């Protein structure tokens, strides 16, 4: 099983991040998680999942929500730059920032690591590991597009939260699963969250 880092920032679309987490844990992978303070508020507003307290308390809440084996999910506050994955020496197979706010995207694109998620993404890029960014904004300005281009040129997967409709989604869950499935595909993680074209 692989080791992944998930960052959830302060943009709408926290359900995508939560579904990716659920799928990785269900698949037996080890996951380190960091959520920005704004991301915590949006996660509560959009999914009803309220996380608060110390790192250990939030980790226990996440572990309880996600299930899995003990120690499979580790939580680190966005200000904790002592987290293992803040260093390139840590063994990590890939990272996803989902959803990714335009602030976080700009910081990552310009090497401005002001918190743990941005630092971890910076490390992922410099170590040439797989980094998937799921921007959640519309419309996009020229500045947003330039920042995405910079990240794409650095080897990052840019995977906007733009669900398709060829699989005839009937619920919001179907739309969430489509994006989460594409994120897992970009990580190289087998999944069956959403029907595939022609199957």
Element layout with pairings:
Layout: E1 3-8, H1 14-26, E2 30-35, H2 37-47, H3 55-66, E3 73-75, E4 94-100, H4 102-109, H5 116-126, E5 130-135, H6 142-153, E6 157-158, H7 172-187
Helix pairs in contact: 1-7, 4-5, 4-6
> For the record, what CATH class applies?
Alpha Beta
**Largest sheet, spatial ordering of strands:** 3-2-1-4-5-6
How many H/I helical runs? 7
Low-confidence stretches: none
Alpha-carbon Rg, integer: 16 Å
Number of strands: 6
Question: From the coordinates shown, what is the CATH architecture?
Answer: 3-Layer(aba) Sandwich
Task: Work out the count of structural domains.
Answer: 1
Termini distance? 27 Å
Q: Kindly report the CATH topology.
A: Rossmann fold
What is the percent of helical residues? 40-55%
Strand content: 15-25%
Globular, elongated, flat, extended or rod-shaped: what is the shape?
Answer: globular
What features would you describe in this structure?
There is one protein chain. The chain is of the alpha/beta class and 199 residues long. Helix content is 42%, strand content 15%. Strand 1, helix 1 (14-26) and strand 2 (30-35) form a beta-alpha-beta unit. Helix 1 (14-26) packs across helix 7 and helix 4 crosses helix 5.
């Amino acid at each position: 099983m692989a080791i992944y880092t998930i960052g959830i920032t302060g943009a709408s679309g926290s359900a995508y991040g939560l579904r990716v987490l659920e799928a990785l844990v269900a698949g037996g992978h080890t996951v380190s998680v960091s959520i920005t303070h704004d991301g915590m508020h949006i996660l509560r507003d959009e999914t009803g999942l309220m996380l608060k307290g110390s790192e250990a308390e939030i980790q226990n809440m996440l572990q309880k929500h996600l299930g899995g084996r003990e120690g499979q999910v580790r939580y680190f506050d966005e200000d904790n730059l002592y987290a293992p994955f803040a260093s390139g020496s840590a063994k990590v197979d890939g990272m996803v920032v989902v959803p990714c706010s335009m602030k976080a995207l700009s910081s990552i694109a310009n090497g401005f690591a002001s918190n743990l998620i941005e630092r971890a993404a910076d490390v992922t890029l410099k170590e040439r590991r797989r980094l998937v960014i799921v921007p959640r904004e519309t419309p996009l300005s020229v500045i947003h597009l330039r920042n995405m281009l910079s990240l794409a040129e650095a080897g990052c997967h840019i995977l906007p939260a733009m669900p398709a409709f060829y699989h005839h989604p009937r619920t919001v869950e179907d739309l969430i699963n489509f994006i989460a499935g594409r994120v897992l595909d970009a990580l190289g993680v087998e999944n069956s969250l959403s029907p595939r074209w022609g199957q």
